[in-house]
């Protein structure tokens, strides 16, 4: 059911391969979504899964003990990689639908799907696939862009529209949709009105700078868990400033630092019942020295580490010295 | 009917804009096909039209007097640019069909469509659109690849299959399909058998090196004009060695030099009744210092210059000194 | 009077073209200053205007509604683009003088000139042209470098000297010259003495880090508006750290983040009577994935948006949620 | 015994993995030599094996039917990939000695070792390992450089010296050492004298241009097979012009075209009893768009295809049309 | 005793050359360590010394007056450049031992050795060489990685192990080893246990973010000077976020900003008795627009400036305006 | 009188420095012309001298024994490097005039000036300076462009005009001006008429391909030496195809190969009384992996080697095996 679309058949940092048609007991299953057919500008995210799977200078040995969190996200959790979903760029509808089946298969098995994009079109099947396996799912969405567009290039499906489709379809309640890091000059008033009408809560960078990211996150977390039993975490790498994440399709200056994103993802996965995750918009052709692919890889590791730490149950103090308690 | 899909609304080196819905008397009309939805590997050709239109260090003034051919291809012919056809990457069938309408509109008006790709998927609508406006069209096809694949990623349409679709549909007779520059490791025996059965004539690089490109071209030209009143010229920039044309999606070492390609395109347009033309697979994200975009631009100029010279009617001698006769 | 020096004739994100010799009623007029003839090190800023005009993934449609400021800087203001001033790199004096005429023409018409550089040599004509149309102009200058050099390579004119020339000529009072972001190892003591003697106020990064950028800006704004009716805002992109703005000629590590610059430019234009603006030292040959060009483009948009907001008159609160009040 | 030193554990284009300690019946065994510890200038060839193994736009399926030669070098031969030999860059002697053991193991098993470099230091163990398994081995060596240096940086081992060590050790007779493509400004007279004394035959580019590459090759082949039962083919990618192979450590302008190299490698393997092969000096950090990695990959495929064709036994005519006889 | 290993024979920004065998009275002596033979992943640091010596847009005149510190680190101190130590990449032990001799020679003469790396393997000889000339040396170590590995690729020496070797050999007490900026997924528990047992104090980024860098530094400084008369400062450029320092071998997202590093290095050299310094892991092949080389250059200048200021003795206030007191 | 304008003060591959005001007995003197103030498109050639001086993987030791020609161009001739002429980009007239003085000083001393450009504007002072020291100078000019423009950007001086200025001033007779490699779409008819009227002989690529480069060169050499006692050789690197020389300002596809240029330069210097030489239009910001800088460096070496061989007087046979006669 899955294949290696563009190049050799790798697993994420060497974790075990699994077969979607016969899933093992797993805590998390990685899926590649090598798709850039929904991109409105620079393509290249089809190579995102391959790049994020291997962007590391350490051995690809399926183990990554986190210095900060004192867990091994790839070993303390049962993490498998199910390979890439076949997603032909020229047929967005068929591709998204294949992905949704795969994500739902994982979620229905009780594992957390971790989807490596691909452009942000994939959030539609990612969140839908997860929401079908849970009572009520909220979304925490890091991005420079709201991705709530109506129709683009004559299509309902594309990387500027998935969040609208999700709310329209009822997969997610608009007032449980939290957006962090928006900025720039899109969308315009009518789409913003639509967003307001559906009760979305979007944190633009001005608010984040003025109030502090941590305060905004705490507020958003309270909303996300109000009446929802599961949270989907969608991370568009362009939430980070283009200087620190150049390998992406629609760069918008003035974003978070990489440090801020990693800390925020950590908090999400330590504090929220994350049931699904995607990391999108890493575009290797525009990257330099793999720095954006590394960042995408580290976002996945940070999330898995924090999920493992959350499951272990003991509190975590960022002020504790690294070597304390050894 | 046409738009500027990715960036500012430019015309090819500053030639006049025209409107597809109301075509002027034209000798040649440039169309952008900013599409990479059919690519099997590296994307990026969506930016090919924008790159090829402006890759020049001279003023964008709609004039290019050829030193070699002593004509101005942009002024001695009536050349217009109709802009880009909207081609959403995520919907290959709709996109190709929009392009076919545009190409046919141009061809039916009596002008030569000059299509700037885009990936090679577009050859299907390009040649079909032209063939519908002529009695019998043959194809001269420069490429490292035969592009005669059956189904890829579950789709009949993609950049590895257009030539098969053209022959299957009857748009072109297989035995009037001439391929120059093939090499490498694709396709395999069954597709080659299909090609042989349909009478295609494909010149692999070994034959070209052994016999000389000029001899192969002369032979091919004789076939192309045997019973056909029009020739479509399809130039995939990857026919050139990747060292001289790195900005492309499926590079295959061992190709022609840029000089050879320019001379071959010149001969085609001097000696054949060229009724349509596309230049494809220029992928700016993989280019360096715009050298592949420049090459694509010069292929277009070489073709237009030679068409202008052919129409002027007097013979051309490459051995004549540049300043002779002034 | 203006031309497209290097490539196609674009306007800034598709705003309307205007003619310098026959200016329309405008709030702001964009001018390209494609000049790197005054550069002491890496050239390339001649391509800055072309790059900044089109660095965007959104349609080039002359509209940019700011999420943060809730205005459309390109539509709520009457913004036109007058094209490029012809500035031959090999003749700095003639070039600067042509630019001064153009800037003065705009300023005298009552519009704000927005000059896209080019190297920082152009600040001399930019500020001079504006100052001739106002009673008394102060300068707020973001830069890693003081640009107050005496003579370089035997010339009074170059990108390291404009601020000195401006004070010497009397175009600006030294004690109304505010510099933000200086750092590094230039200039030496004698030039610093000259700066002190003329009452300049320069905020080096150590002071900015120790006191906070916002406190420094507030102090500077008070000086800038003390007895001056107009402020010229000159933004050298190298004020930002080279990691976030690599495409520049004289990179100096340890600068502002892109976020800080955008917020600072916003404050300037919200709080000060900005009468002219230039964005300089964007050098595309040294850029990667256009991130520096994007930053330059966003500095212009941020400024125009804030000017529009200032003119609307109602107060702005950065803590207001994006969708509040809709 | 072998590992994946730098990144995921891939096989060459997906051929089967094998274990050096328990070799299967094989015709050719690929070995990675990820070593740049012997480089005198630019490093990076440690990433050569990983890059050459996967540089292809086709599926990594262990099959590559050659259009030109009408064989599938990866399937008509039994080709396996034994992975990378561990070669710590900081210890050249230990590294080379590990490689020699591995190469000899393969050669002694009756298979052809195909070694992916790595810098040219590895030719010493490569040829030595092969020579120990054969009666008498000659070497055909494509390179811009003679690699016959004495001592460099205080070491006998490095990428400028392997050919001298091979002749000194008696692994190869100097008068059965054929060098093709030398040029430039190294070595100086004393080393050339040493080469002459040992009867080496080196074809500098001037001779190749004047006489033609094919004539030179025919002459070299006659020497190589005079009293030798086996030939080692060593291909330094810098024999090709840097324009077509920029990703290398010591580029020397004025080389062969990629086409010439591929045709020459084909002739070697069609006409000579090749018993071992290495492809060296592909340095990914200096490559662009993978073009040099692609070239290295194609050199390996060309060699394997031609070996398969030679074993099939029927004559090959480059002038035969691609589709003839189907 | 020293040479120019890779390219022309430059001195650091034009300071005077000196001869290691006959050292002048110097305050600081620069040594190049062009070595990447100990690198576990991307090489290229062999070109670090050449790149850091000349990365500047100002004249290479041996003078750099610091705006912030009001001293000229290259003139107020007697700074010389002794050139590169010959360090053959293929022989790590011999190379490190040559470097140790050179560093000790400088330290024993009473000057501060300033070593330009090179990969971090060189910290072993750098600190050892300095420790042999002082009573008791502590180490302040900026890095993303602890570099306390046991054996890698079969070798005790490499860029992941120097800190362990230093503590094992007794050159430095483990409880006077301060590490700033660690993060990511290496090393694992057993090495961390070893570090704890030896009393190392390592500040991971979570602690730095939570407590603030300045508080952590103050605490570390107190430890470093407790019973030690000298401090060695080792700066691995990968402590900075890869977005701001891409030109390095083992990038780990989430690091310091360049501004933070410069300020921290300044504080070290203002407040501590720095007796030796190295700046390592600048890898030009992976750099873009020289930004990482510039950063390395500025770290050296910041250190020398602060040492000069410390020696001058008067207090320094970062809040003082640049032009105050002139 | 000369300086190091952009970076460290290097000599060409380590040859001896000399002082223009006090020239030694020299056969050839290298001068840097770091000037791009006359460029009509991409700048960057100001860094050409620095790049060409050091582009080599061999030691910078002032010795380069040519394999092909069996001389050491840097030792058999007395070659010195006089450094860079100060050429402020913003003042083309002053800059060109400084260069002319320097070139004339060298030529008048009896040495051959070897000028490293810089854009092609410098040919005007280069040839003028040489012509003033000789009876009658002809020019052999390798270039894609005729460089015979009238006025550009309002200036008589720029890189598109030097050849016209030289003929107008009488420095060179039009009918002793030989151009090799022209192609593309510039200049137009009126300039071509002017060229014809002045008797220039320009070999466009079509003629070169049809007749062969060697035949064209032989014909050109006969003209060049007809009544002239000295030849100036001007090599614009853009005569080579952009694929092999991307680092240049005005790339024109379809050029010579690097091999052809090196062989042609060799013939010029073996067969003609070359009295001056420039190598221009190498633009490092657009280069990749220094391949264009290497090519420029090798053009200089090829020329100096051939001049040395010509002076030695014995005939040279390209067919002689490398090791023959040792």
Automatic annotation (TrEMBL), chains A, B, C, D, E, F:
The keyword Iron-sulfur does not apply. SUPFAM superfamilies: Arginase/deacetylase. Coiled coil: none annotated. Keywords: Hydrolase, Metal-binding. It comes from the Bacteria. Belongs to the arginase family. Agmatinase subfamily. NCBIfam families: agmatinase (TIGR01230). This is Agmatinase.
